[in-house]
Amino acid sequence: MRFFGLLLLVLISTAALAQDVHVKVDPHGPGSTESTTDYKTIQQALDHAPQANAPYRTVIEIVPGTYHERINVTRNRPRITLLGLGKSPEDVVVTWSMNAKQAGGTFFTETAEIEGDEFEADKITFENTAGPTGQAVAASVRSDKAIFKHCRFLGDQDTLFADYGRQYYVDSYISGGVDFIFGNAAAVFSEDTINEIRNGQITAQSRTSPDQNTGYVIDHSRITHDTVPPAPGKTAGTGFGLGRPWRPYARVVVMNTQLPADLNPAGWSAWGRSDTTPQAFYAEFRNTGPGAKTSERVSWSHQLTAKQAAAFTPTIFLRGSDKWNPVVDAAKLP
Predict the structure, then answer these.
(1) pLDDT greater at residue 8 or residue 13
(2) Which of 9, 65, 184, 309 is least surrounded, with the fewest CB atoms within 10 Å of its CB?
């Protein structure tokens, strides 16, 4: 009996240790570098978060405000949640201004660098305000089983580097001008608004082999375009495109999504490659809106059947060997 009593005590203690830990970020609060529950910056809270062997999730609750800082969620800090305490993502803004020329390369420009697995964010804006000055990343995401819900990603060229792991973006807003969703993650964008602010390409996916299970899926979303007037003496351009292959085997599927009238009728770009049939896999299924007509799409793009499209739903495409269900996990966020 004594053995079983000790075992029960251990189990109860373990369960208690596994409870989520909540800390607060408030620039006007009492926090300091010695605090364990209150911090003045998001990075302070991240620096004090438990490392990889912690059995629980750290929830960083962020009071409304504009946070002029760069943040880094390192590999050794998984299971971090950034939770905005405002009513919408506009209330908590993480912002910086840095372009590739200033930083010495695209991959040094990000406002938020997210490397820890099982990362979550809810009601947060990630912003790079460098504008049309070249590559300038708002968020670099190399996290497996990452979820972004009610978030905004604002930039121009290279806004969102979705590069590694399985990623789920739901009920969010992503805006940019050139290749503004790029990288080689397996990512699903569901019920999002994706806004093209110039006449560039939305995606620059970078799958390097047909055997990789990566790619981007835009599903049940809305693509919008800020019409760009032609320069004086110039005629109007041909609109914007859904994507071009940063690497040869790029894969992007757009389905059940509303497309605007000024989408280039070709839909996709080969990025100057001379291949008669590029190796990129670009596909559509049951899109709507004036831009959804497929009669003038590039000949090497695909129109999926219902059976083929089913493989790209979030619960299938992001499932993996561990049977992850991003829809269920996202529903647990506020």
Answers:
(1) 13
(2) 9
Structural domain boundaries, residue 275: 209-229+237-319
Strand partners of residue 263 = 240
pLDDT class for 186, splitting at 50, 70, 90? very high
Pairing of strands 146-149, 166-170: parallel
* Burial state string for 68-82 with b = 16 or more CB within 10 A and e = fewer than 16: eebbbbbeebbbbbb
- If asked whether residues 33 and 160 sit together in one domain, one would say yes
What pLDDT is attached to residue 277? Answer: 83
For the entire predicted model, the pTM comes to 0.93
222 lies in the same domain as 169: no
- Choice among 117, 122, 156, 179 that is catalytic: 179
Residue 193 — φ and ψ, nearest 5°? Answer: -110, 125
Residue 179 a catalytic site member: yes
The CATH number that applies at residue 96 is 2.160.20.10
Identify the CA nearest to 326 among candidates 143, 124, 154, 101: 143
